[in-house]
Structures are given as structure tokens and as C-alpha cells.
Specification:
single chain; five-stranded parallel sheet
Length: 424
């Protein structure tokens, strides 16, 4: 297989780039020249993974089929997982695809390219913590979120019939994922409890463990303070300035003592796959591909974007690992790759602010450079609507306005009928 532009990774940035390129090149040229490769057959917006984990979002209902997106946006798609890259020979090798019984369905394949864009994202950083890999769940993709939800459903059932009638969940990391997951768990438990008899109701204790002095590091202090008060009001325990020293099957050992836990989620740090160091490209200490201000790697014709890239940002700091950064980079590369020979200038990241969902009808965040000044604080229902609009904006970029409206209405009606919590 040979394509002019090969994109590895169909996350928020990679998918938006493929869609933009396909539409710019047209139905005939787009499908011939642009190829998107991902290890999954359908796309789910990564900031929604905590909802899948908590059971408040059905991934199969919300997920978008890559082949269908390719047909609508004029790009080609193939299922695969990158295992080798030879940037000089201009080839990528994809791993075998096997079924659940281990039978090989698709043999190892080698593809050639003229231009390669790496958009594989990144995962959690365990910081070498003993026991973290074995005993803590991570939410790096849909499979992780669904695996945790399966454990959560079993834990709910077990707690409802236990003598103690208590379920303890510890979340390591008080970034957006950890904070939003905690609120989804609390509200899901409340909805479940409303439908149980008195002798089956159980308590849910959610504890967030954070090494920094405050939650939501990197966000304005007043946003962090607002979120902390909201979480405390919901019953979430916040253990800040506590370094995790070890993870055991039934507890998290911290510098401030032990936190008992029946389920543990690791949502701290960002680190790319160790495999990146074998691809013949310059990488940073977090295994991210080092790129210049045009998102070019150390090898000509190979670009990197999103969480897997270490790109120069404002104030001599790397571009943060956020969905909005990946979206901006997708728009930039779409212009650059469809205007060969023309310098479109350097990529400049513009922070639009941060929004955090704090459950049904609640949120908090800051909008940068908006109506209210350089750091405009919003909260409550307005912040929640703004948060939802980010998700819809991503869908609009890949399926268009009309289908986005239909999808949003469908999800709203489905939730009204089936309820917030889905116990599959």
C-alpha cells in the first residue's frame, strides 16, 4: 500500500487532520492520497473516556466508525497498530491482527509513504511506582474504560450484598480526568441507590490522591478552588500534597498514610510509549517526538502532533497535552500539507482556556482572551454548556453540523429514556 500522506492515530487531532485533508483534496484525490491508521475500528473523543468508565456513556452508541468517517470526509482508513518505522526508507510496519482465540486474521504489513504524521497520543506516567502497573486501572483508550466499568459493575453488586456495604475507590491524579471521573462515579452511585431497596444500598467513598498542593494543577487558582469546594460538597475526599509511594491490591500507600481502596484508577502524569525510542526519531524524556515550530520531527517529511509530540509552546514551555492543542495542530498541518512549497509560518498555540465538568448541570472553567478579559471565570450551567460545546465542536469538524445536531439530540433523548447510569 502506498499513500502520499499517512496519519498514524485517529484521536482528536489525527482524525480532524484526515478529515480536513480529505475534504480539501476532494472525493477522488483524498481517498487516494490520505490514509488514516488506528488500532480501533471506531473513534471516541478521549475526554469522554471517564464517562465510559463510570457507566454514564455507552461507547458503542457514542463511537463513530472510521470507515464511515472516511467515506464522508474523503480519506482512506485501515486497521492497524504501528510496531516499526523506517523514516529513511519511508516505510511503516503494522502488527498482525488476531482474533480472540489468537488466530491471525491479517498478517504483518509494510506500507510506504511520502509524508508521515504521527498522532498516536500518550498514556499515563506511572513514575516507576511499585505495584501501579499491576493493581491500578488506567484510562488510556476505550478498552481500558470498558474494562474498568466491568469491574465497577461487579464491585457495585458485591458492595450491595456485603456486610460492610461500602465501596472504596481511589483515584491517583487530580487533573481533569481524575476530577471528572470522581463526579461521574458519585452521581452514578446516587442514581443507582435511588432504585435499590434499603437493605441493598451501600456507601461510595471516592478519594483523589494528588502529589501537588492543589488539584487541577496548571489552571488558575480560583478555578482549582471552585472545583475543590464542589468536589468536597459531593463527598469526594481530597488528599493533596501526598506522593504515592506504592500501590497494593487493596490500598494506595502515600507519604501521608494509606488509602484503603477496592478499586484504584491511575490518572496522573503523561508519558508516550517506550516504543517511540526505536523509530529513529529524536525523542524527549517523556518519549514524545521532538518537533520544531513547524511540527517537523528530526527526519524530513515526518511530522508529529498531539500528545505524542513535544512541540515548542508559549513562554519556552512545550505545548500542553490537551485536545484543543491537537485540534489547532490539525488545522495547521492541513494548511501546510496542502500547500507544498509555501511557508505557512510557524505553529502558534493559543490557549482558549480550560473547562472542567463537575457532573450534571455543573462545571467550572476559565476562558482565555474572551469577553470578560484575559482570564474570564465561568461556572455552573454556563460552564457545563461550554464544556458540552467543545465535544460538539469536535464532532462538527468530522461529521458536519447537521449530523452533529442529530447525534446530540439522540444522546439527550437516550439519556432521558434510559437514565444516566448504564449497567451493561
Amino acid at each position: 500500500m502506498n499513500h502520499d500522506i499517512v496519519i498514524i492515530g485517529g484521536g482528536a487531532g489525527g482524525l480532524e487532520l484526515a478529515a480536513r485533508l480529505g475534504r480539501r483534496l476532494g472525493a477522488r484525490e483524498g481517498r487516494r492520497r490520505v490514509l488514516l491508521i488506528d488500532r480501533s475500528i471506531f473513534h471516541l473523543w478521549k475526554p469522554s473516556l471517564h464517562e465510559v468508565a463510570a457507566g454514564s456513556l455507552d461507547s458503542h452508541q457514542e463511537g463513530l466508525s472510521y470507515p464511515l468517517l472516511g467515506r464522508r470526509n474523503h480519506f482512506s482508513f485501515t486497521l492497524g497498530d504501528l510496531i516499526k518505522l523506517d523514516p529513511k526508507a519511508r516505510t511503516v510496519t503494522l502488527a498482525k491482527i488476531k482474533d480472540d482465540d489468537g488466530k491471525t486474521l491479517v498478517a504483518e504489513r509494510t506500507l510506504t509513504f511520502k509524508t508521515l504524521v504521527l498522532a498516536m497520543g500518550s498514556g499515563a506516567n506511572l513514575f516507576g511506582t511499585p505495584g501501579a502497573a499491576e493493581h491500578a486501572h488506567r484510562l488510556e483508550d476505550v478498552a481500558d474504560a470498558e474494562a474498568f466499568n466491568s469491574r465497577l459493575t461487579s464491585a457495585f453488586l458485591g458492595a450491595a450484598y456485603s456486610d460492610e456495604r461500602m465501596l472504596r475507590i481511589a483515584i491517583v491524579g487530580a487533573g481533569a480526568t481524575g476530577v471528572e471521573l470522581s463526579t461521574e462515579l458519585i452521581e452514578g452511585h446516587d442514581e443507582l441507590s435511588a432504585g435499590l431497596s434499603d437493605d441493598q444500598r451501600f456507601k461510595l467513598q471516592v478519594t483523589i490522591v494528588e502529589a501537588a498542593p492543589a488539584i487541577l494543577g496548571g489552571l488558575p487558582k480560583r478555578v482549582s478552588d471552585k472545583a475543590a469546594r464542589a468536589l468536597t460538597a459531593k463527598g469526594v475526599k481530597l488528599l493533596t500534597d501526598a506522593k504515592v509511594e506504592a500501590v497494593r491490591p487493596d490500598k494506595v500507600v502515600t507519604s501521608k498514610g494509606e488509602v484503603a481502596a477496592d478499586l484504584i484508577v491511575w490518572a496522573a502524569g503523561v508519558k508516550a510509549d517506550d516504543l517511540h525510542k526505536t523509530f529513529g526519531l529524536e525523542t524527549g524524556k517523556l518519549n514524545q517526538f521532538v518537533v520544531d515550530d513547524h511540527l517537523r520531527t528530526s527526519v524530513d517529511g515526518v511530522y508529529a502532533m498531539g500528545d505524542c509530540a513535544q512541540a515548542p509552546g508559549p513562554n519556552d514551555r512545550p505545548v500542553p497535552a490537551r485536545a484543543q492543542a491537537a485540534s489547532q495542530q490539525a488545522a495547521y498541518l492541513a494548511r501546510a500539507l496542502t500547500n507544498p512549497g509555501k511557508d505557512v509560518g510557524p505553529f502558534i498555540y493559543r490557549d482558549r482556556g480550560s473547562l472542567i465538568s463537575l457532573g450534571e448541570g455543573r462545571g467550572v472553567g476559565s476562558l482565555m482572551g474572551g469577553l470578560g478579559g484575559p482570564n474570564f471565570l465561568i461556572e455552573g450551567l454556563l460552564a457545563k454548556w461550554a464544556y458540552i460545546s467543545l465535544h460538539l465542536a469536535h464532532h462538527r469538524a468530522v461529521i458536519g453540523i447537521r449530523r452533529t445536531v442529530i447525534l446530540a439530540l439522540s444522546r439527550l433523548l437516550h439519556r432521558r429514556v434510559s437514565g444516566r447510569l448504564k449497567l451493561h
